[in-house]
Amino acid sequence: MGETQKTPHKKLYLQVYDDICKYIASNNLKPGDHLPTEMEMCQKLGVSRTILREAIKSLEITGVIRSRPGIGIIIQSFSTDRFFSCLIDSMYISGDDHLEDDVEQMRKVIELGFSAQAFDTLSQEDISKIESILNDMKHAAEVQIRSKSKIFGLSFAEADARFHQTIFSKIPNKLVLSIINFFWAYDRKFKIKQPSSRHLRITLDKHEKIYNALMEHDKKMFMEAMEYHYSYDYKEKS
Amino acid sequence: MGETQKTPHKKLYLQVYDDICKYIASNNLKPGDHLPTEMEMCQKLGVSRTILREAIKSLEITGVIRSRPGIGIIIQSFSTDRFFSCLIDSMYISGDDHLEDDVEQMRKVIELGFSAQAFDTLSQEDISKIESILNDMKHAAEVQIRSKSKIFGLSFAEADARFHQTIFSKIPNKLVLSIINFFWAYDRKFKIKQPSSRHLRITLDKHEKIYNALMEHDKKMFMEAMEYHYSYDYKEKS
DNA sequence: AAATATTTGTCCGTATGTATC
DNA sequence: TGATACATACGGACAAATATT
């Protein structure tokens, strides 16, 4: 029988977690396929329903599977979203300020590293979309400067994020896009401080330069604009 | 009482998961600190032990906390290891071949992007360590070429990984190192195919060039060697 | 439309293993 | 050696959601 072995004290639910992973892989289950029912798996693995559920929920929180009443347990298609969501929770908990710089640096390296490829993949349509986002940014900045106060600068920051996401949206590398998404989600969770008017104007200028380069289909100019975007005088964001 | 609200059908264990995250953050709990006991939290949140445990295990699998019998539930220090471990499990399950290229590309961008910084941080001691690792690689390659067959080239691959890990080991950016660790763990899980003798020799040469540049403290040469290392004629690994 | 079977969601009670004092 | 406090693990019961007939 499928007795999980009593290896020196590895927690049962972790063994079950591994067993289920192996089951999925070895039976070549694809997204949309069903796992056996909880009861069946309990019997097959010789564990209680409590333990099985702990393993199931651990797989669900990272987005590998999804369980629904009356339906069963379904394999999800691969995505990094849930992982990054958990990662952000964990960073939030850790309260480690230093992480902010680490993330910023990593973001710079990744965006610059994929800039050339991104440039090649952008269509005229994408560029129009970027133009429209840039206008959103301008508008949000104006509003924010006029009502010169603690008003939550979310719409500017969100447009900023969409600007970057759109630039890299056509790259045929799922990881890149999901990591850039992660950076944005990270910002939304941690960057509460209100940028100054001066900072807003500088940021706007940086993004305009990027857009202009795209308009003129000038790759060299685009790369320079991206470099410029990430050249903080000191601790300038986005 | 702390009744978790019945917002439209968010699963209870997920609410509890969030509640615990918030509890840790708002009480400013640090690594090593204890969470209240299961029973206490059950009462405070008004949920059953089953639900609470599902949330606890979900937090444990991602490395946020650790629970031990007779002791309690303890906050862990922040680390990305568990996340990447889960991510690899998920990639393994997904069986998506395309991911392999995505990871490879990402690795290239990150390592090259941090090469300059890595060069500046390496001490003579580190360089000696790299030399010793390079010798391990040579030795492993010889063994592998002589016994020209399916023998698992793990020791070569492991030395290869250590080579890269050591280069970036002194960078003051936790994320970089843990992502490079992730790449290596990924390789170990997925790259089963045996490299050819020719490939081994090329790989060795690439790493020798990197080491020579370090020996001579020649940054430009180092950067070129890193570039060369990542210039596949096609689909050449590491 | 309505009844029924299936499956997960949630709770409870009890016993066991482990660490601390 | 106990006594205590804690997580680990089991099994049963009922509720809620969904699918099927």
TrEMBL record, chains A, B:
Q: Organism's domain of life?
A: Bacteria
Q: Does the keyword Transmembrane apply?
A: no
Q: Which PROSITE patterns match?
A: HTH_GNTR (PS50949)
What single Pfam family name could you report for this chain, choosing any that match? GntR
Record GO terms (molecular function): DNA binding; DNA-binding transcription factor activity
Task: State if rRNA processing is listed as a keyword.
Answer: no
- Write out the entry's keywords from A to Z: DNA-binding, Transcription, Transcription regulation
The record places domain HTH gntR-type at 10-78
Could you identify this protein by its name? FadR family transcriptional regulator
Species per Swiss-Prot/TrEMBL record? Porcincola intestinalis
